[in-house]
Design goal:
The protein has 400 residues and is an alpha/beta fold. It has a single domain, classed as Peroxisomal Thiolase, Chain A, domain 1, CATH 3.40.47. It contains 11 helices and 14 strands. The protein has helices spanning 20-28, 69-78, 82-92, 108-121, 137-146, 161-174, 191-199, 262-275, 293-307, 317-320, 327-338, and strands at residues 6-7, 11-13, 35-39, 46-50, 97-102, 152-155, 180-187, 223-230, 240-249, 284-286, 312-314, 366-367, 379-386, 390-398. Strands 1, 2, 5, 6, 7, 8, 9, 10, 11, 12, 13 and 14 form a 12-stranded mixed β-sheet that branches. Helix 9 links the parallel strand 10 and strand 11 (312-314). The longest helix is centred in the C-terminal third of the chain and has 15 residues, at 293-307. The mean pLDDT is 95. Pathway: Lipid metabolism; fatty acid biosynthesis. Keywords: Transferase.
Length: 400
């Protein structure tokens, strides 16, 4: 028997802000003013990046070997979730609450800085700990910091990591392994990813321009988004179901998506089937929309073939940058905000920020305009696609 699963109000920190009201206001207004020029990270380059400017909490002294910017982003995101988490722990016990975190960087920022010092001086700084850069570290840190005793693990499937964390958390609930799961994703800006994507010639020095004929690559961003996933809705907000999840791994190429979008279509089809929906029932699609030549070509093919050209779509990447392992969870949080009348009383769609110059080589899809209102907002899809042909599609919906 299928078990319904509900997403709590998310905890979010990103370039749009660190409170849900601020983030919703700037998101629905298409405000990209938080995107900043970044120098000194890639030689001879000024990059446009999504930088978190809010103050981040300090890691407790007894957990200093977990002290990374990635974990501090998680601490900031989780702060508003802690009252609900405490209630769930009191009801079910800490051993019945799991932690699943998606990331692609973990503590590589700090490891790179520390190893750079070692290369220059022959000495590692006292703060260096190999455990910081382990991909499992964010989930282990949260479980130790919060005193949770359920399953705790990280997922690292590149740009689908955050979405996969929600999918995996849902399976823990459906299998009866947990009664609640703290889940989402986090990634911090670091030299490794900035230089790596630059070497792939996939980075735009100006604001990214998804689905435009003039697109020239991604902007990298940082952030964290976390949810409590439960079988019953938590009080305080309109209930939002994680209604459908789909995933595929077509393994087309190590860094390029399958041009025909077959793997992406498979993930979307699975999510629709899981949610019991037909394509025409979707009210909005949050596109992966990285503004690279190959992703946008593939995704427009996939969306056009499966969903047609009627459903409104947009990419939120020009507003936050591509937050890599956090992106799938962050964009699920944006979809959650869209579905809340308290944060979106006018039923606005997330606007697609671009130069308005379509690529004639791409199938036409309907890109949402600024201040565009939906006649209905009940079922929304969020897509995430990653290196290695790893694809994930989530469907969020209201229960009314």
């Amino acid at each position: 028997m299928k078990v319904s699963t509900y997403l709590s109000a998310p905890g979010v920190v990103c370039t749009l802000g660190d409170t849900l009201q601020e983030i919703a206001s700037r998101l629905l207004a298409g405000d990209s003013s938080g995107m900043q020029p970044v120098t000194g990270r890639v030689a001879d380059s000024v990059l446009t990046c999504g930088v978190v400017s809010t103050s981040l909490p300090a890691v407790p002294e007894h957990l200093q070997h977990h002290d990374t910017r990635n974990n501090r982003l998680l601490m900031a995101a989780i702060a508003p979730l802690q009252p609900g988490l405490q209630q769930l722990a009191g009801r079910f016990g800490t051993q019945r609450i799991g932690v699943v975190v998606g990331t692609s960087t973990s503590g590589i920022l700090e490891a790179g800085e520390h190893l750079g010092r070692w290369a220059r001086s022959g000495e590692l700084p006292a703060a260096y700990s190999y455990r910081q850069q382990e991909l499992a570290d964010p989930a282990l840190f949260l479980s130790r910091w919060l005193g949770l005793q359920g399953p705790a693990y990280s997922i690292s499937t590149a740009c689908t990591s955050g979405a996969r964390a929600l999918l995996s958390a849902r399976r823990l609930l459906q299998a009866g392994v947990c009664d609640a799961v703290l889940c989402g994703g986090a990634d911090s800006l670091c030299d490794l990813t900035l230089n790596g994507f630059t070497s792939l010639e996939a980075v735009s020095t100006t604001l990214c321009n998804p689905f435009s004929v003039n697109r020239s690559g991604i902007n990298i961003g940082e952030g964290a988004a976390m949810f409590l996933l439960t079988r019953e809705p938590l009080a305080g907000h309109e209930p939002v179901l994680l209604a459908g999840c789909g995933a595929s791994s077509d393994a087309h190429h190590i860094s390029a998506p399958a041009p025909d979008g077959a793997g992406a279509i498979q993930a979307m089809q699975q999510a629709l089937k899981d949610a019991g929906l037909q394509p025409q029932q979707l009210d909005y699609v949050n596109l992966h929309g990285t503004a690279t030549e190959h992703n946008d070509a593939m995704e427009s093919q996939a969306v056009s073939r499966l969903l047609g050209s009627a459903v409104p779509c947009s990419s939120s990447k020009p507003l936050t940058g591509h937050t890599l392992g956090a992106a799938g969870a962050l964009e699920a949080a944006f979809c959650w905000l869209m579905l809340q009348s308290g944060y979106n009383p006018q039923s606005l769609l997330i606007p697609h920020l671009w130069d308005g110059q379509p690529d004639a080589q791409l199938p036409a899809i309907r890109l949402a305009g600024l201040q565009e209102r939906a006649e209905r907002l009940r079922w929304v899809m969020s897509n995430s696609f990653a290196f290695g042909g790893n694809n994930t599609s989530l469907i969020l919906g209201t229960s009314g």
